[in-house]
Write a structure and sequence with these properties.
The complex is a heterodimer of chains A (308) and B (326). With 308 residues, chain A is mainly α. Chain A has 13 helices and no strands. The longest helix of chain A is centred in the middle third of the chain and has 37 residues, at 87-123. Helix content of chain B is 77%, strand content 0%. Classes of the chains: A mainly alpha (308), B mainly alpha (326). Chains A and B meet through helix 5, helix 6, helix 11, helix 12 and helix 13 of A and helix 1, helix 6, helix 7, helix 8 and helix 10 of B.
Amino acid sequence: MNVGNWLALGGAAIVALAAVAALRRRITATASGRRFFRHPTAVPGLFAIAAPVVAPYPPYFQIDITNPDLPPSTQFLLGTDPYSRDVWSRLVYGARVSLGIGAVAMLVAATIGTAVGAVAGYFRRWVDTALMRLVDVGLAMPRIFVLLMAVALWEHIALWVLVLLIGLTGWFGTSRLVRAEVLSLRERDFVVAARAAGAGSGRVIFRHVLPNAAGPIIVSAALGIGNMMLLEAGLSFLGLGVPPPAPSWGNMIADGWHKMTVAWWASTFPGLAISLVVMAFNALGDALRDALDPRRAGEEGGEGGGAA
Amino acid sequence: MATWLVRRLAASIAIVFAVVTITFFVIHAAPGSPFLPAESQHLTPETLRRLSTEFGLDRSLPEQYLLFLRNVVRGNLGQSFALRRPVADALADAIPNTFTLALAALLIDFALGLALGIYQAVRAGRVGDVVSGNGALLVNSMPVFWLGLVLLLVFGQWLRWAPVGGLSNPVLCPRLDSPACGLDFLWHLTLPALTLGLVGAASTARYQRAAMLEVIRQDFVRTARAKGLRERRVLLVHALRNALLPVITLFGLAFPFLFTGAVLVETVFAWPGMGRLAVNAIFQRDYPVVTGAALLTSAMVVLGNLIADVLYAVADPRIRVRSETA
């Protein structure tokens, strides 16, 4: 591992820890914040995402190609894969790829979903009807099918296009949620007052309506990252996701799949990593929902099933 | 209720129509053709032209689209390029397999999910609830195909309790009508259905727990208990009936999950269903099969939502009244 990578990892870890600490200070100041941190899996969930991890080998380094599939040992923590690469090292580097894809795709989806939902809910009438019919169609479209079509037909698609596509097919649910929220908010007195004071639609939406709808958007984003990651893993597994030598967790499962009977560790650990991180995000989403919605104090559960 | 149903039905058809149209244009807008690269297949220009004419690919796109629509309305989904047979036949072969898989998975999903959800609600906050709740959350977060691989490894390879894939065993089931075949088929169905069902059950349990908790606190449950009814009767008759309502929505949501999950699970278990057919067709640029599969899948999703809505209206009189007055 070179100096640049160490610096990047260390920097990311410090920023993440600082962010978590600041966030924690801010939200424990309120009763709802304390509720958030009572959630059993929320704290380890946050740290699983932020934790700095150390890779003993570069992710592409083939240790001894004549002697692959070594079982887990002290030298190779999680064994080596069929191409004789250290599974632990690839898992660590893969975390960046998989989490990065999940986060960026979710950002795209949340942005579009919020924009569409806000416009539909605020302007109502034909704008609402048109946009919501579009959402109906989007929700009826089998998502993995659309992505498969796009990736398989336009061969050698760039990674950023793939991420964009995952985001572009994932905003339909969020937009419905935001619309419902905006529909009720726009009738409230403070919004009416803002309008009466002469604020334009853009200002009312961005300064008055959306900040009050932030809770559900954040929750759906936290729950959505997990789904995005699962989708990426599924696509990579079918050979249509992240291009092969790069260590995404889905790729790693695909690499080890055909030799699973000989070297179970190569596919099992990346899958476990996905499961744990997605679980952390789901727990985070649940915890945020509990924290942001006082009516749900003391309960948990609710929507947010895992697709793909 | 009737006008509502008609309107919903019309909207559903419109949605399916839109999905099919989008699919048609996306797949035709993609670069490349089903017969490329011509050099590697040693096709002469004449052969290529003949194939294009045979499958109508030499016409303009709007023309192809209108032709396609006319055929669909007549129930003709076209001819598959790669399989050399009508798309409808290929789909008809694959659908029963996917349906059986989905049905078995749905059964496991709801049987296990409801039981677990009720158990968790009754034991809310205690060890059993916390452990099984976090376990369910973990299973719910697993990539479906990976769970399939792990189950295959453990039960197929290490313990050898279940076959490692396919529909049937040619030794146990030489002819489709032999008596052992049904059992053999069930045996092959177990792992794929369990894979899809477990992930679904984890999410169903989470909903059911929340719904049950809400109901258990209400007055009529206390009344039932005060009447001296047995706890089992209070929970399974009085509370469960009311807690089932929110879960009906899940039924509609389960359809898209089952179909996306099927794409991956069918690949892992070499299960010859719709998902595998569609994936192969996409790789081979088999346009008619892709559009046919998109038509069917979106129809299933929309139908699932429609059924959920109807069930909802049947189960909850309040909704029925509201939709009639509206």
